[in-house]
Design goal:
By secondary structure, the chain is mainly alpha-helical. Helices cover 48% and strands 6% of the residues.
Amino acid sequence: MTAFRGNIVDQDQLRRPLGPRFFPVSYYEEQLNQASCLNLVTNAVVLWNTVYMKAVLDQLKAEGHHVDDVDVAHLSPARYAHINPYGKYRFNVDQEFPAKDFAR
């Protein structure tokens, strides 16, 4: 709901006069798409953090450091300070995964 010239109007009422020419895809579908992408990225970050944290803990143990299980229980893979959500990411898929490596 938005205050508009003293009246309370629904956001859809503000968009409706513009018609499908300006909003070809429903906002609901766009929100679902954004939520799905956000879930995918979140899951990828948690997976990466989990794998990386395990590797670090294994390395610490291999170097002879004491790693207390009580401390490990308080670690969380949901950290995200190292992620840049506003940057541009470029992946050269052809360079990383040449087509010759995949059976077609």
